[in-house]
Specification:
It is a single chain. The chain is α+β, with helices and mostly antiparallel strands and 354 residues long. It has eleven helices and 13 strands. The strands form two sheets. The protein has a seven-stranded mixed β-sheet with strand order 8-11-7-12-9-13-10, with helices on both faces. Strands 1-2-3-6-4-5 form a six-stranded mixed β-sheet, with helices on one face. The protein starts with 26 loop residues before the first helix and ends with a strand.
Length: 354
Amino acid sequence: MNAPEKPAEPRLTSLSHGGGCGCKIAPGVLSEILRGTAAMPIPKELLVGIETADDAAVYQLNDEQALIATTDFFMPIVDDPHDFGRIAATNAISDVYAMGGRPILALALVGMPINVLSTQTIGRILEGGASVCRTAGIPIAGGHTIDSVEAIYGLVALGLVHPKQVKRNADAQPGDVLVLGKPVGVGVMSAALKKGELGDAGYAQMIATTTKLNTPGPDLAALPGVHALTDVTGFGLAGHTLEMARGARCEIRLDWAGVPLLPGVRALAERGFVTGASERNWAGYGADIALPASFASIDKALLTDPQTSGGLLVACAPSAVDEVLAIFRRHGFAQAAVVGSVADRSATPRLVVS
C-alpha cells in the first residue's frame, strides 16, 4: 500500500494577517500605546533615541565611532521563502544606512509555525536573509527562534558611524530640497500578489526594489549639504515625510507629480488592490496633511501606501542636490528624484501636497 501523500504546504502569505511593513501598528494606535510609557534616564552617549521616531538608536562609543542599533521583522509579503528572507533582511539593514552608517553584523529573529512549514521551507527563508547579509558584507552572528502561529522573520542590525555624520530624520532645514531614492507602490503590489493578480513582470519589479540595499546612506551622510535622512517604510511616503516635518518643526511641501511610482501600480490601485494599512495610515496622521481639492482617492492611497524596504528620503541644501542624485546613480538608483522642499518653521508642522 502506498504511503499517504503529505499535504501541500500553504502559501506563506496565507499564514499572515498582514505582510511586510504593512504589519506595523497604525500610527495613531502606536502613539496611544507609547503615551503611557514611563520616561527613562537618557545617558549623554545616546545620540538618537525614541524622541523623534527615528530609524535606529545611536550610542556614541568614542570620538570616532557611534553604534547604530535597530531591529525589524514581519510576516510574509511574498510566497517564495527565499524572497521573503531577502526582503526582510534588506528592510532591517536599511535602518542602519538611513542613519548614515555602515552595517557590521546582524542577529536573526525567527518565529515559525513548525507544525505547518517544513524545515526545508524555513531553511530557505533563513538562507534568503543570509544571502542579503553576505551582499552587505556582514555576518549573521546569532539570533533567537520561537514556535509561532504566523511565520515571522527579521534581523537585529548593528552598524557604525562617525558621531559627526549621524543623520537624523529631524534635522531638515528651511529651504532644503527633498530627494527620494526608490519609487513607491510596494503595498499595492503586495495586495495584488496576495489575490493572485500580480504578473511575472510586476513580481520581478517588486522583488528588485525590496531587495535593493540602501547603500547610498553613508556616502550621503558624508556630504555637508545633507541635513536629514530617513527611509520610507510602513507609514508610507506621507507618514515618514510628516515625521521629518515634525522633527524639524517645519512645513514640508511634496510635489506629488514628481514622486516616482513602480511600473503598473496606479493601474493596480485603480482595480482596488489597496492595503488596509493605507487607510489606517491616513486615519492616524491625515489631519496634518493638506491635499488639493482635486486630489484623487487613488493618489491618496498611493501617498499612504506602506512600503517594505522602501527608499531613502533625503533633505539637503539646494547646492547639494546634484551630488545627492549623482550618489544615488552611482549606487544604481536610477529612479531617484526630487520630490519636494522644506518650507518655513511652523508651530504646527504639516505636510502640504501639490
